[in-house]
What does this fold into?
Amino acid sequence: MTNSSQKADSNAPQTLGYADLHMHTDASDGRPSVSELLNFVRKYRPHLNAIAITDHDTLDASLWAYERKHFYPFDIIPGVEVSARTGHVLALWVTKPIPAQMTLSETVQAIHEAGGLAILAHPVHPFLYCHVKQGIRTLRRPAVLEEMGFDGVEIHNAGIARTGFNWLARRLARTISLAVTGGSDAHTLGAIGTGETTFAGSSADDLRHALLQQSTQAKGTPWSITDYVGYLKHARKRKAMISSGITNSSTPINP
It folds into this structure.
């Protein structure tokens, strides 16, 4: 190959991949079943190259989807949203449970030991954050996230109604050397894709490489009013069912 052809190859446009790394099913507090979510992405979000189902403290739906990844045209990343004592952590590329209610540092360490990457979810939102004081400390001294070993921080969470909190997260991320992500935090089908992580490439492997290289970008919009209302109705119904001692018995349907 000549030098001129090598230069032409290096100037070729690079594929840009899209991923939604934060969404929920009825395995935790989401509205759709895992099969409904997967089929919705296939039909209505064909631009997504990769997704991560990150239910609260359970891998059930995510692993069910991961085991059937060959049925779908997009990559499926096994994951879970871990409830640490003072925050929520997205554990990506993990296939075994990560204990809840550990410190943030312990949670990150457990995720790394499981072969995964640790992303701090909605880092500065006072209502979504488990402990407001920890959120304030993070804003005052963002470097603590690097010291804890985080791989990235979620700077666009589409479920946050007041976008000022996403602005604060972006501002925080500019002061530290961590990857950035965007996620829909979808609890309804329509919200899927309202938060996205963009990366060079088109596969989950490309995405993981981009996160480790801190070359990802985040984009998105807030949920629509329809999705907010749908989620609030679902949350009230779910709370009533839990109060009545009724558990979710939804069973996934093969694609």
